[in-house]
């Protein structure tokens, strides 16, 4: 671990524990100020705040938004081109070393490609068949055996028209 002797202020995004406080003090011997979000500050035990105060280390609330990634036009074009070539967002993310979420963001914001929504496990035709079998007087258990759909899902299909 490289020790940063001249760092006196850091921003944390994870909860403080006694172990983490010791690591921070070891890593940043000149530490005087720790900043964090309000939600994180509210979760820091009072005894930790008091211990840090005794060490002349102040803990303050400071909103520090993450840096939004900026993608070049060439990079955006590459993502769109790969999608048009038939690659899935996951494959694109692996090829370009970005997250799948970033791939979806680029495709939704910068292209006219419509991404498919949630794929249904059971088709509308099969759901209608389930309803028809119920109308014919079959029990839910018999419908489940005949269609190979779980009983619970049969009830869901029948109750949500």
Features of this protein?
3-stranded parallel β-sheet; 7% strand; 161 residues; 9 helices; 3 strands; mainly alpha; single chain
Describe the structure.
This protein has 161 residues and is mostly helical. The protein has helices at residues 18-27, 38-41, 46-54, 73-84, 89-96, 100-110, 124-135, 140-147, 151-159; strands spanning 9-11, 33-36, 58-61. Helix content is 52%, strand content 7%. A 3-stranded parallel β-sheet has the order 1-2-3. Strand 1, helix 1 (18-27) and strand 2 (33-36) form a beta-alpha-beta unit. Helix 4 (73-84) crosses helix 6 (100-110) and helix 5 (89-96) crosses helix 6 (100-110). The longest helix has 12 residues, at 73-84. It is elongated, with a radius of gyration of 28 Å. The chain starts with 8 loop residues before the first strand and ends with a helix. The model has no long low-confidence stretch (mean pLDDT 87).
Q: What proportion of the residues form beta strands (DSSP E)?
A: 5-15%
Measured distance between first and last alpha carbons: 60 Å
Overall pLDDT metric: 87
- Tally the beta strands: 3
Order of strands across the biggest sheet? Answer: 1-2-3
Structural class by SSE content = mainly alpha
Number of helices: 9
Q: Which stretches of 5+ consecutive residues score pLDDT under 50?
A: none
Please write the string of helix (H) and strand (E) elements.
Answer: EHEHHEHHHHHH
Shape descriptor: elongated
Compute the gyration radius: what is it? 28 Å
How would a crystallographer describe the biggest sheet? 3 strands, parallel
Q: What percent of residues adopt helix (DSSP H or I)?
A: 40-55%
